[in-house]
Amino acid sequence: MAGELSPIDKAKYVAARRAADLVEDGMRVGLGTGSTAAWLVRCLGEMVREGGLRSIRGVPTSHRTAELARSVGINVVSLDEAKWLDITIDGADEFDADMNLTKGGGGALLIEKIVATASDQMVVIADAGKEVESLGAFPLPVEVIPFGWRTTQALIEETLISMDVLGRTATLRMNGEAPFVTDEGNHILDLHLARIGNPRQLAMVLNQMPGVVENGLFIDICDTVVIGYGDGRVEVRDINQGTVEHDRLDFEDTDNLFTDLAE
Ligand code: 5RP
What we know:
The protein has 263 residues and is of the alpha/beta class. Helices cover 27% and strands 27% of the residues.
């Protein structure tokens, strides 16, 4: 079954599988959103069912992750119930050498940032194609309240003139004919910046605007990146310990994770 996966899916799977080993029984775990995070949730679910992680509690970062987590047998609790998390494992749209991230391609950036910030350790799982020299090629998602979103869009575009970026347009994310709506009932503006020279400054400026709820730049939040490759290689970079580990995972054809691909 694993042989039917594309190299990118294999890369996502091995990153998720390796990151699942960082979870210990009893931990409170932030569960990310997106296709890579979905692999993680399936891996953790399998470990729960096999008895190794029987007492973990998972805090999902979206409705769809909550649904998947419950379906694979993970005990799902709210962040307020968990209060603080031991670890959060999530995907990313881009990461740079300082482990700064762009997130929100799946529209869950607000809850993802709240959950990641409330964690002792944030681990990003990604295929190698997500690594970039500078953030910005992937459009930067910004969650805005629906009221006056066009005014917020204009304000953002005007502000971008004085920022260290190459592109300056903001487009409303759509879901078919209608604006995309986040789990919190907001809209997303995708900023087409091409290159972000100073992500920290941009993140602060965006969050000062009245209609902006949160932006998809994760600065100084990520501790570890687990990078997967299509041939089963995995690289684990830890920014706090300054370590880089290399590993290789085998694909198991009998693994029932591959029989219930949801996305
Ligand atoms: C969702 C996210 C995702 O983590 C990000 O979009 C990566 O997704 P995928 O693992 O599907 O490539 O930020 O809001």
